[in-house]
Design brief:
The complex is a heterodimer of chains A (163) and B (198). Chain A has 163 residues and is mainly alpha-helical. Chain A has helices spanning 6-12, 20-32, 36-55, 65-80, 82-113, 131-135, 146-162. Chain A has three domains: 6-55; 65-113, no CATH class; 131-162, no CATH class. Chain A has seven helices and no strands. The N and C termini of chain A lie far apart (152 Å). Chain B has nine helices and no strands. The chains are: A mainly alpha (163), B mainly alpha (198).
Chain lengths: 163, 198
Amino acid sequence: MKDKHILEILDGQRFADLDGDALERARAHAAGCADCRPAFEAARVSAALLDARAEAAAAEPSAFFQTKVLAAIREKQNIRKPIAAFWRWWQASYPLVGSMLFIVVTLAVLILLAPPSKTEPPVATYNLYTTDSVILNQRPPRSITTEQALEVIYTERRDAIKR
Amino acid sequence: MARAATAGDEAAFAEIVRRYSPRVFSFSSRFFRRYEQIEEAAQEVFLKAFTQLRNFEGRGSLEGWLTRITVTTCINILRATKPQNELTVSDLTEDETVWLENKLANVSSANYQNEEDKLIAADLVRRVLETLPPDDSLILQMIDGEGASIREASAATGWSESKVKIKAFRARRRMREAVQKLLNAKDGKLLKTDKTVK
């Protein structure tokens, strides 16, 4: 300590820890040295500033801090484990989703597996009532096709014109 | 409790957060000035603790383990942000300049020690400490401010004792030089006082 320069002494330990001898030597040197005096004063002021810092109250956690931390942890877990998150979602909603899927699949299967229709495209059919059959209250003839109906109509008209 | 939390017991981890968050906040306060920054850092600490809980082997206390995570996390956050420019005398408020003048003149009246002066000093020192590297700032606050021993600082930071001593030496020099610049910048006026040096 004896041969150390004042700056080494000041920087080597807390200002408050300087013992009487070292402090007196530093003070005496600073009083007479224009270069070291600012350093001595700065060290003293620094020590006072740090004391003030130590006395200042530290911040306290808010009442919601614990909730925030737990929420952040859950969010991080969900991001990292999408399968687990999907499984949790599935457990909550599987009855509804399951039934919807079942209906859709059933309809799709029915549509795909339904047999093709073998009937011919329907044709316009109608029962031909002649005037005589209506008057005489006779049963109409069996159903005929459109072409047959047209043939009957035009034949009757042709006959009517000839007459 | 740590074992239960590692096994996924959320209530156990919630208890860890409740029990140790004041200490984590106290440590984070040494690095940041604004409350939002302190809270964000503390949240990050507990998120890391949750993911690394299985690495806690029970050697040493849970509190010490969390303190080391806090130190590492806060230093990493600060290193990622833009470093503060050095503080110049033009950055000081009038109250802070008066405080420095009073301190330099070694005024020790009752008024000087009132709560308002303490708040001014606390804010000024935070601004000075922001201009230093984050690990220097931490070491200064722990050892020079709070009186922690080298061993205690080593246990809290996870650094070796020799590393703590070296950091403390360099931190004191940087702090002294920063304050010296502030004092010198007033045209040496503050240092021309004829008052007796304390």
